[in-house]
Amino acid sequence: MGIVNLVADSFSGDGIENTDRALRHARELAQSGADIIDVGGESAGTKRAAMAEQEEIDRLCPFIEKFLASDFGETPLSINTWRPGVARATLPFGGDILNDIGALQTDENALICAQYGVALVIMHSVGEPKIPHTHVRYDDILETLESFFAEKITAAERAGVPRERIIIDPGIDFAKQRDDNLQIYRELARLRKFERPILLPVSRKTVIGEVLNIREACNRDAGTVACIVSGILRDASIFRVHNVRAARQTVEMLSAIEAA
Question: Residue 178 in contact with residue 137, Cβ under 8 Å?
Fold first, then answer.
């Protein structure tokens, strides 16, 4: 899953506000081996307050329209938003996945996915997006994730989303401490019980910077590769990344080794 950030303040420094430049970047990601393009109109970072809903819509809709009309528009498109209003405004333009970073606090996004027949990513977090939750502590983060996904998958199904269209995301760095994130990487296989694809948003995460003492996010690609390998060995299915070429080569090389 290649990342397109339609913002100037992306934490990794790769944000692109111009629609045509963002489209060229999406094409490069697809050519580098991205199976899915994930586009977001707002940074999930907490250093800036949430933007107005209409501003996010105005960023996303022109990109989606041009993406679908492009020569690579058959690449599955993931819309990254937590606001139901944005999902309802953008999905009629097109999109195959709603990547909800809001932890499905209500069933509204699930109802929208059911209406438009798109897949739903359910990501674990605590509290509202765009607000720091660094105070949160867990006795066992995997037990928390297991309970969370059991509840939210059931809620999504009740809202009309077929189970085969549900993807789960443990939410690396979202309302989690360094050791919580590392435990998720180590014990990710515990989420196999849900028999749903696991999306692992590994790219250039804060936990990588903390472990390797790397301040600049753009310099964390080697740590990202290590997290991809760990994820593959524990049954993660989708990796959300900035450096698609390195990620793709990592997946293909490890797959070849395992298949030999």
Answer: no
